[in-house]
Amino acid sequence: MRPMLQASSVQPPTIDDIRAAAERIEGAVVRTPMLKSRTLSEIIGAEVWLKFENLQFTAAYKERGALNKLLQLTPEERARGVIAASAGNHAQAVAYHGKRLGIPVTIVMPVSTPTIKVTQTEGHGAKVILHGTSVDDAFVKARELEAEEGFVFIHAFDDRQIIAGQGTIALEMLEDAPGLDTLVIPIGGGGIMSGIGIAARALKPDIELIGVEAELYPSMKCSIEGCNMPSGGDTLAEGIAVKKPGELTSRILKDLGVEVRLVEERDLERAVAMLVAIEKSVVEGAGAAGLAAMLGDPKRYAGKKVGTVLCGGNIDTHLLANVLVRDLVRCGRIARLRVAAQDRPGALAAITAKFHEAGVNIIEINHSRIFTRLPAKDTVIEVECEARDAEAIDDVVKRLESAGFDVERASLD
What we know:
Layout: H1 15-25, E1 34-36, H2 38-44, E2 47-51, H3 62-71, H4 75-80, E3 82-85, H5 89-101, E4 105-109, H6 115-123, E5 127-130, H7 135-149, E6 152-153, H8 160-176, E7 182-186, H9 191-203, E8 208-214, H10 219-225, H11 247-256, E9 259-263, H12 265-279, H13 289-296, E10 305-309, H14 317-330, E11 334-342, H15 347-358, E12 361-368, E13 378-386, H16 390-402, E14 406-409
Parallel strand pairs: 2-10, 3-4, 3-6, 4-5, 7-8, 7-10, 8-9
Antiparallel strand pairs: 1-2, 11-13, 11-14, 12-13
């Protein structure tokens, strides 16, 4: 059994390692499109290029690193089988390519992992073990099984062969869009940013490298800058919700001078919704983090030629529906109005008449007679409605208020 090397003693991959990885995995992963978005470019005021890694077979870039790693195992290591800890994209990547190569795969996932992700991973032929409440718990268990069963551990990001595989993305990006002067890349454990950073700097030494983390999980920013910020909470970008980044990746990003920026949840939601609406492409929260950074601070990128990676498309359909509806609320297309009225015959008809006059469609109506601070003779009528634009909602509010009704609009913020 090979001894596991500490990350601090491992040298980062070189551009030659990344080029070799590209040759190694060619034909077994999708060479995804790299396209300029005219609409997003106009919105942000920059030339925006998107690398559609959500179009990989498992809908994420993780296939590149996983395959590069698996292809370099010895026959003896392949026979022993591999193990990984993951709640999502890395699990599916290792499982899928492990099955293709005839390598037994075991994946340890937290008990809380959504059933769909467990099922998809098992569908690729992997044995799934549910353990613990977090990926950290699953990681510890996987390492225990590595020692007990003799498996080869496949790290999700802190591994030079994994990093080299992810770096192949940059080769394709700069081949398809050689004029890029800035790369904005999501950061979780740091594997994709490390690989892309090494390759991009080798090809274009002056290129600007910006990494993006969810505001709730600033672990890499703190690792590089030496800050101390809280890390945790529910984020749409669960794919980059990492409390402890890699040792090797942290060293690489610091040496590369990567600037790490944080994005708010509302910008992540907005980015996911815009990619559906504008690019007709489903992208998970982590995959949309680069665009979210641009939307949150467009002046930072004004006039630049910016490339970002839509690194994954594995988002729960119910969650995606919530994000899209919430975006319509923020755009003013959908609203919930609380209308105070006397509880008497004709009150509801008078209210709905104003919606008809304004051309606003009523989705749902709810009466609240008990849980209200209004007098007992009054009621609150909640109306959820949709309109062609925000101005139409404003119009119905004015009509209601002109008719003597008190109107309160629900807000997401």
